[in-house]
């Protein structure tokens, strides 16, 4: 070995020495303790800030300043001390007063509905609930008395209209023929040179027009009382009849202005 060193010195080769120091690894237990300590410090800081916010006019003094650890300065007697929270626990939050008021109002509303259902069977709430729980109930079909009649000819037309005791309205003149009230054309049939139109005003109420020269609408189309339904040249008499559930009606009359109305 000395020969190699002598040979190296002779060749003037620098010789350097290296010291290797092996650093001890931190144990997992030390790292866990350090993490828990940091989390506890953070939670203590949040708890102090929360207490100062909700304490009102009588804030609770901390046992020790934030710059000092709890182990260095002991808390005075009677002071409120805080317990460090686990990193897996969250601080309890106070219930907001608005939530309490809303809950009380909801309870009062439920109680009101219950009492109303018990003591007032025909109240608006009960009627609304019955309509929701029984959606299959259909409204009653409209009858002839639910409609307001108008003239079957223009009020300016010079037409003599007669109504028989059986309820048949008839006239002979060249003019437009109007539906007595709004409805839907149910059918249009031809009888020789004239046409017959049936207008359905409801499921049970109909009007029939015979002796028409031409009809302006087809079956399935809607008609209104102020728009002509058909036309007559005045060569044949026109007859108008009304039916309720298949029975001819004779409970109407016509005035001097050719307007129809139901008899009281």
Q: Any overview of this molecule?
A:
With 264 residues, the chain is of the alpha+beta class. The chain contains four helices and 13 strands. The chain is elongated. Mean pLDDT is 78; it is low at 59-71.
Concise structural overview:
The protein has helices spanning 2-10, 28-54, 97-119, 124-133; strands spanning 162-163, 169-171, 175-177, 183-191, 194-200, 205-212, 214-215, 222-223, 230-232, 238-244, 247-248, 252-254, 260-262. The chain is α+β, with helices and mostly antiparallel strands and 264 residues long. β1 (162-163) and β2 form a beta hairpin.
List its traits.
eight-stranded antiparallel beta sheet, alpha+beta, 264 residues, 4 helices, three-stranded antiparallel beta sheet
Order of helices and strands: HHHHEEEEEEEEEEEEE
Structural class: alpha+beta
Integer-rounded radius of gyration: 50 Å
Task: Report the end-to-end length measured between terminal Cα atoms.
Answer: 143 Å
Task: Give me the number of helical elements.
Answer: 4
Number of strands: 13
* Major sheet: 8 strands, antiparallel
Q: Uncertain runs with pLDDT below 50, 5 residues or more?
A: 59-71
Task: Bin the strand percentage.
Answer: 15-25%
Structural shape? elongated
Helix content: 25-40%
């Amino acid at each position: 070995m000395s020969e190699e060193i002598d040979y190296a010195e002779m060749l003037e080769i620098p010789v350097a020495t290296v010291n290797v120091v092996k650093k001890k690894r931190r144990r997992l237990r030390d790292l866990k303790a350090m993490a828990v300590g940091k989390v506890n410090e953070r939670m203590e800081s949040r708890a102090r800030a929360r207490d100062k916010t909700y304490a009102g006019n009588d804030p609770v003094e901390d046992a020790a300043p934030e710059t000092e650890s709890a182990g260095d300065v002991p808390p005075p007697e009677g002071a409120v001390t805080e317990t460090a929270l686990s990193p897996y626990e969250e601080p309890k939050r106070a219930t907001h007063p608005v939530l309490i008021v809303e809950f009380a109002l909801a309870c009062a509303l439920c109680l009101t509905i219950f009492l109303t259902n018990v003591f007032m069977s025909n109240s608006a709430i009960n009627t609304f609930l019955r309509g929701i729980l029984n959606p299959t109930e259909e409204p009653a079909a409209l009858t002839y008395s639910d409609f307001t009649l108008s003239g079957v000819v223009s009020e300016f037309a010079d037409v003599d209209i007669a109504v028989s005791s059986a309820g048949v309205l008839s006239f002979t003149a060249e003019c437009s023929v109007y539906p007595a009230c709004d409805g839907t054309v149910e059918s249009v049939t031809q009888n020789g040179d004239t046409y017959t139109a049936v207008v359905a005003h409801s499921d049970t109420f109909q009007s029939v027009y015979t002796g028409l020269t031409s009809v302006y609408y087809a079956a399935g189309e809607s008609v209104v009382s102020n728009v002509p339904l058909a036309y007559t040249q005045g060569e044949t008499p026109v007859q108008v009849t009304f039916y309720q559930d298949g029975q001819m009606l004779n409970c109407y009359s016509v005035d001097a202005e050719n307007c129809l109305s139901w008899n009281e």
